[in-house]
Amino acid sequence: MSSLARLYAFVRPYRTQALVALVLLFAMVAADLLIPRMTQRIIDEGILKANLRVVLTSSLIMLGASVVSASLALTNNYLSVRVAMGFGADLRSALMRKVQTFSFGNLDRLQTGKLIVRSTSDVNMVQMIVMMSLRILTRAPIWVLGAVILLVLTSRRLALMMAAFVPVIALLVWLFARKAQPLFAGVQERLDRLNTVLQENLAGVRVVKAFVREEHEARRFDSANEALMTQTIRVSELLAVFLPAMLLVLNLAIVGAVWIGGLAAMEGDLTVGEVVAAINYLSFALFPLLMLAGMMGPVAAAEASAVRILEVLDDEPEVRPGPAPRILEDPKGRIAFEDVCFAYGGNCAEPVLSGVSFVAEPGETVAVVGATGSGKSTLIHLLPRFHDPTSGRITLDGVDIRELDLSFLRSQMGIALQEAVLFGGTVRDNIRYGRIGAGDDEVMAAARAAQAHDFIQELPERYDTVIGQRGVTLSGGQRQRIAIARALLVEPRILILDDSTSAVDVETEVRLQDALDRLLAESRSSTTRFVVAQRISTVLLADRILVLDQGRVAAMGRHRELMASSPVYRDIYDSQLGGVEQEALLG
Fold it and tell me: Are 326-412+534-580 and 414-491+493-526 the same fold in CATH?
C-alpha cells in the first residue's frame, strides 16, 4: 500500500459526504456523455432531414444536461472541499498529538523546522490530492470508461484506433511518474532546509545583529533559497516536456479520428452525426487522460509528502509507558539513581553519564555542579523521563519510574529550565499553565516566592499583561522568575531548577532562595529539590552536592566536606569565589 493510500484512513469520518460526492460524479459524467449523442441526433435526424422539432428537442435536452452537470459539479465541489478540509484538519491534529508524545530524542532527530513543514506544506499537498480525488482523479476514469463504451457502440474502427494510442500514453505516464517523485521529494527536503534556516534566523535575530552577521545569514538563506529554486525549476522543466507531449498524442488521435471517420462517412459506413459523436467520445476518452497526466505531478508530490508525514506518525516515542503503568497513592519524593548510564543512541561505549548512583531523601536539596558538558542537564532530564537511562534505573519511593504512569510522574514535578519558555497570553495564564484551576491568591503567592511579584506589579496590566510570543517583552531574568513561579504553583513533590536563575542578579537570587526555603517549609508535604547551577554560591547550603566530571560522580557531600576532599569541587569554588571567606557565604 502506498503512503498516500494509508493516509486516506483520515477520510473515514467524512465517508458519507465522500460517497455522495462520488455518486454525484457518476451522474455528472452521465449527463456529460449524453451531449455527444444528442449532437449526433441533431445532425443525422434534424439538420440532414430538415426536422426542426428534433433540433429543438435535442437542444433542450442538451441544455438540461448541461444545467444538471453544472449543478452536480457545484455540489460535488462543495462536498469535496468539506471532506478535504476536514481531512487536513484531522491530519494536522494527529501530527500535533503525535509530536506531543515524543521524547527529546525523537525531537532532536526530526527537528523543529522539518516538523513544521510536515504539518503545513506536506499536509496541504496531501489535502489537495484528497480534494482532487473526489473531483478530477475519480471523474476522469469514469469519463474515460463511459466514453470508450459509447465509442465502441458508435464505431469499432475508431475505438481500435484509440487503443493504439493507449500504450504510448501509458509509457509517457510511467516515465513521468518514475522521474517525478524523487524530484518532488527533493523539493520538500529543500523546503525543510529553507524553513530551518529561516526559523533559526528569526529565533536568533538578536544574536545575528549583535555579532553583525546579517550578511552571513543572508548568504545562508540565499543558498537554501537557491537550492529550492533550482529543484523547483527541475520539476517545472519535467512538466514542461511531459504535458505538451501528452497534448501532442491527444491531437494526433483526434486528427486520426477525423481522417478515418471521414473516410468511413464517405464510404457510407458511418453517418456524419456518428462521426462527430465518435470524435467527441474520443476526445472525452483521451482528454481526461491528459487531465490525469497533468495531475501526475501533484500526485507524485503528495506521495513524497505522505512518506514524510508517515515518518512522523509511524515514529515511536523513545520514552514509552510501562505495560501496566502504576500510580503511587502518597508519593514521598525519595529519588534514587542506581548505577545509571546514559548515551545518545543507546551505546554506553561513549556515555554522557556513567555509573551514577546517589539517593535524594524527601525534603532534601540536591545540587548538581560540574564543568560545561559534564552531564548536569542530562541527569536532570532523566527524572521526568525526557530520556530513559541506557542502563541502570531511577526510582521514586523505591519504584522504577519506568513502571509509573508518565502523566502521574510528571505531575509530581515542577520544572524550571535555563531557557524559560513562555507562551503568548497573560502573565497569570503563564504562571498557572501547569495548574489551570489555581486561584489568584495562589498565583500571587508563587510569584512572590519566585521574586516576580514586584516587577509584575509594574507591568501595564499587572497579572493581566499580555507578554507576547515566548515572553519577548520581558527580560531574561523576568522570564526565568515567571518560569520558577509556574513550577512552584503545581506544589510539586520534586522541584527541578535547571540553572533557572542564570539571568537573575545575585541579590535577587539570594532573596529567591530564602523565599523558596520558607515556602517549602510551610508546605504540607516535603519537596525534594534538584538544583543545577553554574554559580557555586547557589549551592553552598544544599544538603547534598553532586560533583560531575565527564559524566561520572567525582564527589558527593556537603560544601565543607567537598572543600576538604574533592579537588574538582575546590577548583570550581576557587575559580568563582577564590579569596571570599566561606563563613560570609554560609551565613
Answer: yes
Where do the DSSP E strands lie in 461-541? 494-498, 528-532
The DSSP code for 44 is I
Residue ranges of the chain whose pLDDT lies below 70: 1, 108, 111-113, 162, 181, 203, 206, 209-211, 289-290, 292-294, 296-297, 346-349, 468-472, 500-507, 519-525, 537, 576-587
Nine-digit cell string for 77: 465541489
Burial label for 152, CB within 10 Å (0-12, 13-18, 19+), is middle
DSSP 401: G
Alpha-carbon span 24 to 22, nearest angstrom = 5
Query: How buried is 372 (Cβ within 10 angstroms: 0-12 exposed, 13-18 middle, 19+ buried)?
Result: exposed
Q: Where are the domains of the chain?
A: 3-313, 326-412+534-580, 414-491+493-526
- Non-local (6+) Cβ contacts of 162 within 8 A are 148, 151, 253, 257, 282, 285, 286
DSSP 3-state of 118 = helix
Question: Which residue carries 500535533 as its cell?
Answer: 96
pLDDT tens per residue across span 157-180: 777 776 777 777 777 777 777 777
Using CA atoms, how far apart are residues 21 and 32, in angstroms rounded to an integer? 16
Q: Determine the Cα–Cα distance for residues 215 and 53; give it in Å rounded to an integer.
A: 78
Spatial distance between the Cα atoms of 90 and 94, rounded to a whole number of angstroms: 6
Look up the CATH superfamily of 3-313: ABC transporter type 1, transmembrane domain (1.20.1560.10)
| 3.40.50.300, 3.40.50.720, 1.10.3210.10, 3.40.630.10: CATH of 326-412+534-580 | 3.40.50.300
Q: Which fold has domain 414-491+493-526?
A: Rossmann fold (3.40.50)
Partner residues linked to 139 by β-bridges: none
Q: Could you tell me the three cell numbers for 484?
A: 520558577
